[in-house]
Write a structure and sequence with these properties.
The complex is a heterodimer of chains A (188) and B (166).
Chain A: H1 4-13, H2 20-57, H3 64-93, H4 100-143, H5 146-183
Chain B: H1 3-27, H2 32-48, H3 59-77, H4 79-92, H5 101-113, H6 117-127, H7 132-139, H8 143-161
Helix pairs in contact in B: 1-2, 1-3, 1-6, 2-3, 3-4, 3-7, 4-5, 6-8
Classes of the chains: A mainly alpha (188), B mainly alpha (166).
């Protein structure tokens, strides 16, 4: 392969029999993805329905601090889940049939906004979540046995550490994707 | 997707199978297993976005845009492509002296891998014999800019394949 034309010739001669089994696998995977989406939607609707039912049926005799704490914990997690769903939809709406440059630019914007979410909003949400937990501690002490109260308090520490590592992992992963995007056009 | 669209989809798959597979192989240095994974991802996206095709260009141009964007996005986000790419590069840089056809291809894939992802896309589309005006549309740059750039990439690639420094 001395000239570009020779390279091109050899390239186009590199042919394989069409993989018909893969065609079936594609069809199956598309159907599986559709089912997965349906299941996710059903789970989210069921969870929301359960929460609403609990809110309606609950006996509102506990101290106000209990409801404030509970609202902060459930609200912060719920808000984060909704934001994540919005981001997933945002990514799927970026037109794949855009030109390379337009698609890359849209993807860059998407990952930049993800980093803002991870670095600014997620820590704020976490602080709200843990504030809710701290507010609930007196209620836990009052209503739980000594063992379960200690268990709740002690287990909260590894949960908090796990959350921090989870956020760190995602920040690193998305930083890496952004760096790759920036590098794509910088090496000749 | 209705019954007729499904028939059209299967027709497109069979017509474009080899071109899309070669493009995918170019991104993963000739690893056929990974290339088939990429091809599968590409055609899943094609299926999912089938009704979004507005007819402003040829169906094949639309397919190549999806191929380039899907392959590159997979390479950015999926660890399996990232690790393998590095491993294969380490293995392949020392084999360019061989005159065997398979080795020549390995050397070619290795040379393509040394280009930026953007230039990889341009040269892979050119190797497929896709008209330059279409490549310009797929990449999103002016035709004249593409022509100049393509000459430079072709020369870099040819030199590399013939074992010269790039």
């Amino acid at each position: 392969m001395k000239t570009f034309e020779e390279i091109q010739n050899s390239w186009s001669q590199n042919k394989e029999p069409i993989d018909e089994a893969l065609l079936l696998a594609i069809s199956n995977r598309v159907n599986r993805l559709k089912n997965k989406n349906r299941i996710t939607t059903a789970v989210l609707i069921a969870t929301a329905a359960l929460l609403v039912t609990c809110l309606i049926r609950v006996d509102y005799t506990a101290p106000v601090s209990f409801y404030v704490g509970l609202f902060l914990m459930i609200g912060s997690v719920g808000y984060r889940v909704i934001v994540e769903i919005i981001f997933t939809q945002k990514l799927s709406k970026i037109a794949l049939d855009n030109s390379y440059y337009n698609y890359k630019s849209a993807i860059e914007k998407y990952y930049c906004s993800r980093l803002v979410l991870h670095k600014v909003w997620t820590p704020i949400i976490l602080v709200i979540y843990w504030t809710g937990f701290v507010i609930l501690i007196p209620t836990f002490k009052e209503n739980l046995t000594h063992f379960w109260f200690n268990y709740t308090c002690i287990s909260s520490v590894p949960i908090a550490i796990g959350m921090l590592f989870f956020i760190r992992y995602h920040i690193k992963k998305e930083h890496l994707i952004l760096n790759k995007l920036y590098e794509e056009t910088s090496i000749s | 997707m209705n019954k007729y669209s499904k028939i059209d989809f299967e027709k497109l798959y069979r017509e474009q199978y080899n071109k899309v597979l070669r493009l995918c192989m170019g991104y993963v240095q000739g690893d056929e297993h990974l290339a088939k994974d990429l091809l599968q991802e590409v055609f899943i996206k094609v299926w999912q976005h089938w009704d979004n095709f507005k007819g402003g260009s040829q169906r094949s141009t639309w397919l190549y845009r999806i191929t380039v964007n899907t392959c590159l996005q997979q390479l950015r986000t999926d660890q399996k492509y990232i690790k393998t790419s590095i491993e294969i590069l380490d293995k392949d840089t020392s084999v360019s002296e061989s005159i065997d056809k398979e080795q020549q291809f390995k050397s070619l894939y290795s040379c393509i891998y040394q280009l930026s992802k953007e230039n990889q896309s341009i040269i892979l589309l050119e190797l497929e014999g896709i008209p330059q005006k279409e490549i310009a549309l797929i990449i999103g740059i002016e035709h004249n800019a593409l022509r100049t750039r393509l000459n430079r990439i072709k020369s870099t690639l040819t030199k590399c394949v013939n074992n010269e420094n790039i």
